[in-house]
Design a protein that fits this description.
Strand order of the largest sheet: 3-4-2-1-5-6-7
Shape: globular
CATH superfamily of the largest domain: Dihydrodipicolinate Reductase, domain 2
Largest sheet: 7 strands, mixed
Radius of gyration: 20 Å
Structural class: alpha/beta
Number of domains: 2
CATH architecture of the largest domain: 2-Layer Sandwich
CATH topology of the largest domain: Dihydrodipicolinate Reductase, domain 2
Length: 335
């Protein structure tokens, strides 16, 4: 039985997602009795604010999880693989934001608006999905429930913060260099990201797709309990600080109309419909940034697919794509 006022640890507390996890716990008044901040030795000793108190970051060690009820991990796959089993052994439930356990049959992969009941199946670890998957499914899943999705063709427009804090700094630096007519330097991406787009997110597979592009299909199948779901995706990194967007063409089993789709999406939790093109109103990453809800718009019948609908969805990948989704999973653990 989960403690009603659990002791919580954030692993990777100094990273972009870790900081958002701490803010989200505070914002949503998560009923924790103790918060421990854990990170690498490099970050140990730094402080972060929680409810007006400065908490000191401690170094993550094998003994960090004694007495911890829930640990929110966002420190990369290698750290998760090494430390999540140690946490589970200590009696901690791990909500992991890396890709380490997402496709493990023993580990639920959860978007609470889609498959909250899967949380109850955990054996100590619950996985947070890929950010692009989570944001896309916020709009796609309600439509799937109503019309039965067969396949999608999609392109993502992914913000640099998906790569981490260093990528945000790289974009800022490059914009300054270009404005000041200085040579452009790059460390994080293989090419200049400022005033450019890179059709390259994650590493390439032998098929020519990237790992990121295949996650929407593999993770979507698991989250929606829809083993025949197909997704052909091109993932693109764009010079945006926060919030991912995805253009989706979806084909359904049953006939669909824009009116019926809008009705379904208006009723979907965690989703705002912004769809008045005549007034230039549609979702944009600029306005989705730092918002919990995802936004969907540009609804129209797909002119190349039978029973097809096109839509555009934007969401803050540090929130719904990561920190918020993890905290929502923790909230489900308390129910």
């Amino acid at each position: 039985m989960m403690n009603r006022n659990p002791r919580v640890a954030v692993v990777g507390a100094s990273g972009a997602v870790g900081v958002e996890m701490i803010r989200t716990l505070e914002r949503r008044s998560f009923p924790l009795s103790q918060l421990s901040l854990l990170a690498s030795a490099r970050s140990a000793g730094k402080t972060l604010s929680y409810k007006g108190t400065q908490l000191v970051i401690e170094e993550l060690t094998q003994d960090s999880f004694s007495g911890i009820d829930i640990a929110l991990f966002s420190a990369g796959g290698n750290i998760s693989r090494d430390f999540a089993p140690l946490a589970v052994k200590a009696g901690t439930v791990v909500v992991d934001n890396s890709s380490a356990f997402r496709m493990d049959d023993q580990v639920p992969l959860v978007v609470p608006e889609v498959n909250a009941s899967d949380v109850a199946l955990h054996r100590g670890i619950i996985a947070n999905p890929n950010c692009t998957t989570a944001i896309t499914l916020m709009a796609l899943y309600p439509l799937h429930r109503a019309f039965g999705v067969r396949r999608i063709f999609a392109s993502s427009y992914q913000a640099v913060s998906g790569t981490g804090a260093m990528a945000i700094e790289e974009l800022k630096r490059q914009v300054g260099q270009i404005v000041n007519h200085e040579p452009v330097t790059k460390d994080v991406y293989p090419h200049q990201i400022a005033f450019n787009v890179l059709p390259h997110v994650d590493s390439f597979l032998d098929t020519g797709y990237t790992k990121e592009e295949m996650k929407l299909q593999s993770e979507g199948r698991k989250i929606m309990h829809h083993p025949s779901f197909l997704a052909s995706v091109t993932c693109v990194r764009v010079p945006v600080y926060r919030a991912h967007s995805v253009a989706v063409s979806a084909e359904f089993d049953r006939p669909i109309t824009v009116e019926a789709a809008r009705e379904v999406l208006n009723a979907a939790p965690g989703l705002d419909v912004i769809d008045t093109p005549s007034r230039n109103e549609y979702p944009m990453p600029l306005f989705s940034a730092e918002h919990d809800h995802c936004a969907v718009g540009r609804l129209r019948l797909d002119c190349a697919l039978e029973n097809g609908l096109c839509f555009w969805v934007s969401g803050d990948q540090l929130l719904k794509g990561a920190a918020l989704n993890a905290v929502q999973i923790a909230e489900e653990l308390l129910k």
